């Protein structure tokens, strides 16, 4: 359930949330604005719930990430982690900014290609790539496949040989470094399913160099998500640097180190991960290796650029207990609070409501699950039926994880950019919920 872990410090107020989100402003007449566009105007036009993505904010963040690497004197390829938000408009915008794609499925490969990202700028990660996905990627001449196991290496060798080509691969190494994140989003521990055990990597790299259809170019690592300190990065990169030196001493060639992603943001009051600090860690541990570097950010780029608009269906009073604010958004829209106990800021759209004295409330959705809870005992201004709110920092792992559970149509999506906005996915119709379903003739009704 949301907010299950008690915090020692008070929740940030509405004013504090606005101060920590430079893309948001509270206009005294229009209410809450994202990148200069009134969110009430969007909600009036397309209804709620509705996802809104700030294109200007997204561009600002990717440029800052790129600049941090340049300022550190690093030549780094940036591949956006498509799983964070795979909308074609988001991928197209990031392609314009010079980003490639980090994918984990054949569907994400198809999306990246549809958005105009060249195969050479795509990296394929993931522990369970199918033969069909690998054949498609290898046939396209994809830039890099991050190999997760000895078994997968043999499969890739067989497919590439059959196609009469060579697949460019790195070995994804599990450095057994604890990134200190939520158990469900850590990926760099020995107990996790991801990557090749560190102690096996040198031998497997030597074997890769001898396999037909394989062009082994280096190593990759990714230790988790929502990482706020550079210490785990430095520890992981130091181990990778030692590995590079070891295999080079054995006569192997290493051209690439893929540093992964996972840089975290400030959802509540925690300090945001800093691209400049990440660049510093990369330079300190890997800068002297004469390798090409790559990164795969997702959350840090996209999460603060997006929000979920919702309306209060009703304020369910409970005597002296905190009321339930029942929203028209639910866990099928934003799964993170139910799945990860994630904390998301909640801000009223009304400038008047935003200034009212706050009191505790439980913010929930209408889905028939007790876990359909966004916040418990959250201090919010009083809000009645019809009041609108923005749930913050949902540009990553928000809409992309939505479902139609309880036969709830997928919410509309909107992109804000250059002072205007565009519907980039209309609200799903009720009829679309069963499109593609068939009923055997003997069960068909008359409706």
TrEMBL record:
It catalyses: meso-2,6-diaminopimelate + H(+) = L-lysine + CO2. The modification N6-(pyridoxal phosphate)lysine is found at residue 83. Pfam families: Orn_Arg_deC_N. GO terms for molecular function: diaminopimelate decarboxylase activity. Residues 59-303 form the Orn/DAP/Arg decarboxylase 2 N-terminal domain. Keywords: Amino-acid biosynthesis, Decarboxylase, Lyase, Lysine biosynthesis, Pyridoxal phosphate. Its EC number is 4.1.1.20. InterPro entries: Ala_racemase/Decarboxylase_C (IPR009006), DAP_deCOOHase_LysA (IPR002986), De-COase2_CS (IPR022657), De-COase2_N (IPR022644), De-COase2_pyr-phos_BS (IPR022653), Orn/DAP/Arg_de-COase (IPR000183), PLP-binding_barrel (IPR029066). Belongs to the Orn/Lys/Arg decarboxylase class-II family. LysA subfamily. Homodimer. This is Diaminopimelate decarboxylase. It comes from Acetobacter farinalis.
């Amino acid at each position: 359930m949301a907010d299950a872990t008690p915090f020692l410090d008070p929740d940030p107020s509405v004013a504090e949330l606005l101060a920590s989100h430079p893309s948001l402003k509270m206009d005294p007449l229009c209410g809450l604005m994202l990148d200069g566009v009134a969110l009430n105007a969007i909600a009036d036009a397309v209804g709620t719930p509705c996802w809104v993505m700030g294109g200007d904010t997204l561009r600002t963040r990717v440029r800052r990430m790129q600049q941090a690497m340049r300022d550190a004197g690093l030549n780094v390829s940036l591949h956006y982690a498509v799983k964070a938000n795979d909308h074609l408009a988001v991928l197209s915008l990031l392609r314009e900014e010079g980003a490639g794609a980090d994918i984990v499925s054949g569907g994400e490969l198809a999306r990246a290609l549809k958005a105009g990202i060249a195969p050479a700028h795509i990296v394929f990660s993931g522990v369970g790539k199918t033969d069909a996905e690998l054949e498609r990627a290898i046939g396209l001449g994809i830039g890099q496949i991050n190999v997760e196991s000895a078994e997968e290496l043999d499969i890739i060798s067989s497919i590439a040989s059959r196609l009469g080509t060579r697949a460019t691969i790195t070995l994804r190494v599990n450095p057994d470094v604890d990134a200190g994140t939520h158990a469900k989003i850590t990926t760099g521990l020995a107990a996790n399913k991801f990557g090749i055990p560190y102690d096996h990597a040198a031998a497997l790299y030597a074997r890769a160099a001898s396999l037909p259809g394989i062009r082994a170019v280096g190593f990759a690592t990714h230790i988790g998500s929502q990482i706020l300190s550079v210490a785990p990065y430095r520890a992981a990169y130091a181990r990778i640097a030692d590995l590079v030196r070891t295999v080079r001493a054995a006569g192997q060639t290493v051209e690439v180190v893929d540093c992964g992603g996972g840089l975290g943001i400030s959802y509540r009051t925690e300090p945001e991960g800093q691209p400049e600090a990440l660049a510093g860690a990369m330079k300190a541990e890997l800068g002297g290796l004469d390798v090409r570097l790559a990164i795969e950010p997702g959350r840090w780029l996209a999460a603060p650029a997006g929000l979920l608009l919702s309306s209060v269906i009703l304020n369910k009073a409970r005597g002296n207990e905190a009321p339930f604010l029942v929203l028209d958004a639910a866990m099928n829209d934003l799964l993170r609070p139910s799945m990860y106990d994630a904390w998301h800021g909640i801000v009223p759209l009304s400038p008047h409501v935003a200034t009212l004295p706050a009191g505790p409330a439980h913010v929930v959705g209408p889905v028939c699950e007790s876990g359909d809870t966004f916040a418990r005992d959250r201090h919010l201004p009083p809000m009645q039926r019809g009041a609108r709110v923005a749930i913050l920092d949902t540009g990553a792992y928000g809409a992309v994880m939505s479902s139609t559970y309880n036969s709830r149509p997928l919410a509309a999506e909107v992109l804000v950019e250059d002072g205007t906005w565009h519907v980039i996915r209309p609200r799903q119709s009720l009829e679309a919920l069963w499109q593609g379903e068939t009923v055997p003739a003997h069960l068909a009704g008359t409706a």
